[in-house]
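tool_call predict_complex ligand=magnesium ion
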Amino acid sequence: MPKNKLCEIDHDKSVTTDQTQADSGRTHKMAPFIEVANLSKSYQRDGFEIPVLDGMDISVEKGGYLALMGPSGSGKSTLLNIIAGIDRPSKGTVKIGDTEITSLNESKLAKWRANNIGFVFQFYNLIPVLTAFDNVALPLLLTKLSKAERKKHVETALNIVGLGDRMKHYPKQLSGGQEQRVAIARAIVTDPQIIVADEPTGDLDKTSADEILVLLQRLNQEFDKTIIMVTHDPHAAETAKTILHLEKGELVEETE
Amino acid sequence: MKLFFLVVKNAFRSKTRAFLTILGIAIAVVAFGVLRTVVTAWYAGVDAAATDRLIVRHAVSFIFPMPYAYRDKIADTPGVEEVSFANWFGGTYIDQNQFFSRFAIDADTYFDIYPEYMLGEEELSTFKREQNSCVIGSDIASRYNLKVGDSMTLTGDIYPGEWNFIIRGIYQPQKKSTDASQMMFHWEYLNQRMLQDYPGRENQVGWYNVKIDNPDEAAVISTQIDELFANSAAETKTETEAAFTRSFISASGAILGAMNIVSFTIVGVIMLVLANTMMMSARERTREYAVLKTLGFSVPKIAFLIFGESLVISILGGALGLLLTFPLVEAFAAAIPKGWFPVFEIEVITIVLLVVVVLFIGAVSAIFPVRNVAKSKIADSLRFVG
Ligand SMILES: Nc1ncnc2c1ncn2[C@@H]1O[C@H](COP(=O)(O)OP(=O)(O)OP(=O)(O)O)[C@@H](O)[C@H]1O
Ligand SMILES: [Mg+2]
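tool_result ok
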């Protein structure tokens, strides 16, 4: 069982059953939770084929914390997006738990994302006209939770990121670091198993960045979230359990 | 819907833009409403026209008179119930800017044929008795603050000279579309003065008003009447009152056509304005919509946001416009010379049309942004820096 549960949310079981599957999968500890097999991605531009990812194999176990590093344009974001189900590969498969997400159609994939993935972006991507509370509540609007239940979950999530006293603030009334923490609260409010973060500290000063990194580590260790983070910062990557280096769409190095 | 609060917040995200767009729609709605009102006012005469009345006029033009002698011949035509007649007097009252219709009518029959000009029994009999008396519509009475017993002086142009009348009756309009801004006096009075001052101009009638038994027979009776005077010096043209009124309107048909086109052009222009606003907002929010999709929001849910926003703006604009249209039409009605239109008010059909137009504009304007959101890939939109 997970060490800590953020909240109980009745995810739509007709879409994915991998929560139970993943739970049973955890008994044999080393079975990969995220399995990327022979993944390739290329873009067509002016009739040319531009390869971005080339025959990539990655596996992350449940509760893993993976940092993706590499020069700009090496395909980190592309890889992260495909694993998180917001982009499609040209070839290969991504299997998460028992679900092969690369074969889901758009609407099933959308539901799968809502239930299984929390997103953290470099530029926070909060909705400026909504308060911190409403921003965090957004993903819960897709669930069957009552208003009171939603409120409870939002408050829990905001308390975890240390912003319980900023609920009524609008994004522009918050610092960058605080905005990113609201974004993390939004990512965890549905209690997803996986958190993906694309350069979550890329736009922050050192102090704020450290706060975010500590928070992610806590989510990984205390709440058993599987995390994949793209970063340019070696110091940030250090906080992960595993570091992968990408170069020109290929895996060049793996550090434990 | 749990998302409605976001719809409203989105609509007013850029306050100036929302305000300007709403104002634009409001102005268009006002313009549309006023133009439609003018057009419908123009046609109100046709709608008010009875189907059991024929107008007999000179075949060449209604400005040429016909002999009084036609009266009995028309009355003898099978199917004709009663015949009355009138002359257009013209002239001026007070000054050139006072417009209203002034007729010389056959006092004995006219109000039988036109029951929509409601006159008290006593007033009617006094009017019939006194040859220099006249009857005015209630609009004229209130406009010039006139009452029974007052005198009215007209200066003639077609029929030169000073003409003095005593008001003996004020008629009330039976329906809203009834023209309550006319003045009628004795044809006999006119005829006597013509006989005296301009011999040769007596016994002339501008047109005959013919009441018939059966509206279905209108065409047959019209032909029969016209045949009576075929090959005479003054051939006639007989048609239903509605057709007669329409022939007046057809003279201004080009203007009405232009007004019609303009009113719908306004709708087209404002649709482009709102569509443009919606495109701009949706484009600025490319990343936001991508984030919502990332969080698992389906395209229909995002479409709800965009359609909702567009409709909120168009409905607010429409409501504001409608609120402004009423006082404006009233001001317009006060400003145009009285008597130009028997009725000048916003019709229900105009309001219905406005509501439909406003909803249509709101919905159509959202189509392109929604299509863009549906087509775009999340990963591409997240990279979008707008
Ligand atoms: N929609 C697209 N069409 C064409 N090429 C694209 C598209 N999206 C990404 N690319 C290309 O794919 C390559 C990898 O992009 P990606 O964003 O994954 O790199 P990255 O490693 O995240 O870089 P950075 O560190 O700058 O964020 C780049 O060369 C980029 O130009
Ligand atoms: Mg990137």
